Amino acid sequence: MSSIPGKALGDMDANLWDRPDLVRSFIEGRPLYDQLAQEVAFSLEKRVRDKKIPFAHVTRRTKTLESFAEKVERKHYGDPLKEVTDIAGVRVVYLYESTRASIGSLIEAEFVFEKDDKQAQQKDDQFGYKDLQYVVTLKDATGGARYEDLKNLKCEIQVRSVMQDAWAIFSHHL
């Protein structure tokens, strides 16, 4: 059985584990979020390559049940399946700061989005996490049976430099 550091899966906050309907809905919906992350990552990588924007990599992931439960416990969501916006996640890691805006423009042209620019929120004398985050959905014009079940799902996209990515990985393990 998987666990969150310091907690066995069965010891999680009762607000999630006492709701088997929510756990079941997450488990049943997870393959769609995985498909969404795959589609978003594919689309972004293709667009970045087509525009010949240098980048390090594009990765994707889908939250595990354990990670979802931990976030629900930590954030106290009332309707977690609607409020957790990063069940599907994609990360674009770029090489040069000069390409950050171009990648952001591609995302804004490709998806319906909400944007959170951590860099714009920090003062010049502050040090810390400065990635660009989007919560996106597929546009209505995205067609075909393959996309019908994905259109209302949200995916978080993180755009960060190689150095920001290294810092985030390191600080996460601390």
Please describe the topology of this protein:
Elements (H helix, E strand, L loop, with lengths): L2 E2 L2 E2 L5 H4 L2 H31 L4 E8 L2 H11 L4 H4 L4 E7 L5 H11 L1 E6 H4 L10 E6 L17 E7 H12 L1
Parallel strand pairs: 4-7
Antiparallel strand pairs: 1-2, 3-4, 5-6, 6-7
Helix pairs in contact: 2-5
Question: How would you describe this protein?
Answer:
The structure is a single chain. The protein has 174 residues and is of the alpha+beta class. The chain contains 7 helices and 7 strands; from the N terminus they run E-E-H-H-E-H-H-E-H-E-H-E-E-H. Strands 3-4-7-6-5 form a 5-stranded mixed sheet. Helix content is 44%, strand content 22%.
Per DSSP, the total helix count is: 7
Main-sheet strand order equals 3-4-7-6-5
Q: Termini, distance in Å? A: 24 Å
- Largest pleated sheet: 5 strands, mixed
Radius of gyration from the CA trace? 17 Å
Q: What overall geometry do the principal axes of the alpha carbons give? A: globular
Residue windows where pLDDT falls under 50 for at least 5 positions: 1-13
- The proportion of residues in beta strands is 15-25%
Task: Give the structural class.
Answer: alpha+beta
What order do the SSEs take from the amino end to the carboxyl end, as H and E?
A: EEHHEHHEHEHEEH
> What integer is the average pLDDT?
87
Work out the number of β strands. Answer: 7
